[in-house]
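Proteins fold reproducibly. Take a tokenised chain:

. . .
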Amino acid sequence: MEGRPVMLIADDVEVNRTILRQIFQDQYEVCEAANGQDVLTALAQREVNILLLDLVMPVMDGYEVLAYLHSHDAYAELPVLAMTARGDSDGQARAIEMGAADFITKPFHPRVVRRRAHNVLANVENEWRKAMQAAKDHQITEMHRTIEEDGLTGLDNRESFYRKTAEMLQKNEDIPYDIIYFDIDHFKVINALFHIETGSLILKTAAFYLQAAASALGTCGRLESDHFALCIPRGSIDARMLIQGLDNTVQSLGLSHNVLFYAGIYPIENIYLPVDQMVERARFAEKRVRGSHVDRVYTYDASMREKMLKEQMIMRDMEFALQERQFQVYYQPIYRASEGTPMQAEALVRWQHPSEGLISPGLFVPLFEHNGFIVRLDRYVWEEVAKFLAAEKEQYGRATPVSVNVSRLNFYNHGLLDFLLELLRRYDLEPDLIRLEVTEQAYTENPLQIAKAIEEFRAKGFRVLMDNFGSGASSLKMLKNLPVDVLKVDMRFLHGGDEHRARAILTAIVQTAKAIDTDIIMEGVETEEEVNFLKSIGCDAMQGYYYARPMPVEELRKKLHEG
């Protein structure tokens, strides 16, 4: 038993403690508590590495325990796995907001609870190592800098703002506070237009105004770049009036460019929630109105809370989902309209979650692009496609080409081309069978690197498709400089606005593609009228619900070989 981590199981139902003991006794030294008061006693008597905490207990419930832990430095870092009833989303959200690392639901699934306990301890270990490194870095930094102010504006910097805000909230528990997060629209553009000195003047002017508005009420800080935050008593200042005041103050500088501020508000409910999480929620709210000229203030609400929980579930389960092959590859055929037969297909990923059901790619793909997991998911999809193509060749002597999406993050990996070539070698495939779809947005963000990668792909025999062509502001420049093999244009280009002009432009795109020996595929084709129009302008390759929806691999096989 020596050297094993210690787990404290707190539940007033003995049978639950017995079940959990049986699940964990091989990995942990297990001790038990029947209520919240027993938890505090046990923690005072010995060191505990992880706490499994039921939220509903007599004497002292789990929420009271969480509040106690967060208010005492000795226990603030103890990882807690909350135990809730299935479907108790409010309890789960409240526990997470009060500092629980994760939750498990009753009745317990041994494999799930083991995995979640393992993930929690792994995160703690990782955070400990980062903390140790941060401590070393801090020692070096402190030799050169001992002040807590932001060097440019004189406001509290990020760390100082977080600390002072937490102290203020705990000293004034009976006063409701709001976090207000401010951001400047397209501040990088302002720096590029007017140089850094003008940008710095705008920041210092905004800081002076915010400090004057909040100094007698609460805390004020510059978090980074053009991001500011206030923590003030609820209702003491109207955020829209603050925005108006910022506008007027910055306009007094006489700039020719209109500088717009946006704000997000998080009404604080739990003062023990880490301040950085409060700020993140206010920032999340601000993102809802960024770019709007109608209303530039948004308040964090219940719907955003649900989205936050959904995103947390996605981030928590993604590794396990990849291991368990919960991600499934669907295929949408691309048809040759003149013959009414499939000429190739596009691979699309779906997530069949065991408890959440089918999760939309629109929800998990942006998160994976943000945290980098999309690179591993892309490679998983590519290998599944390679297996399908190899099976087709073995059974029929030939295979229909399949295009796969290549996220922009893949282009920062120098091993991308080597991985694709190894995939072809391992499954004995020709380069033409796996076609690579690159978004126009990826090219816009990093044109030189994308262009270089595409040249290398094509030199090795891969065909490259430009997805979402026409959606960006640099489409014509891209068409001139980037020799791709195929353009994919979405039929939504026709919808909204002047349809006559849209049809004329679409006709010109098809003619231009032919003139430069580039194929074109129309996506999102849904009606017979659209099919007839595309045929009339010389477009023969079409993809969309008119022909077929995305389908599992077995359905694709039937579709390819029927008749």
